[in-house]
Amino acid sequence: MTNAVFIDTWGWLTLNDAGERRHQEVADLYRTLIAQNTLCYTTSFVLDETFTLFFKRLNSYQAQQAMLQLSAAFSTDSFQLIHIDELRFAQAQTLRLKYLDKPQISFTDLTSMVIMQEFNLQRVLTEDAH
Known about the structure:
It is a single chain. This protein is α/β, with parallel strands linked by helices. The protein has a single domain (4-125), classed as Rossmann fold (3-Layer(aba) Sandwich). The protein is built from 6 helices and 4 strands. The chain has helices at 9-16, 23-35, 44-57, 60-73, 86-98, 107-118, and strands at residues 4-7, 39-43, 79-82, 124-125. The chain has a 4-stranded parallel β-sheet. Helix 1 runs parallel beside helix 3 (44-57) and helix 5 crosses helix 6 (107-118). The longest helix is centred in the middle third of the chain and has 14 residues, at 44-57.
């Protein structure tokens, strides 16, 4: 899908944490994506990680606001929250076994790879090298 992007944990955290080194760059990119009507994908696993980090790194008010705003975004047509069901989980397990030589790839990242393949997503907002 051409006008779509997958946003991972780093992207959501950097967007919402003004203290992150690349916050302004990500915020500008995010505004551009929205202006271009880009469909933003993420997964339930990514949001799990993201919400955990919000409450670790932001004050409680900021974390609460970031979580609620991000959750609300997924009730609009511009955002797709994909749930990791049993089949997708099993596909991620298969990838884990395929990439035994890359233990630095998190299981959440593997589930994201499954979704990117399933929805033919070519762009990802991440700082990960893989």
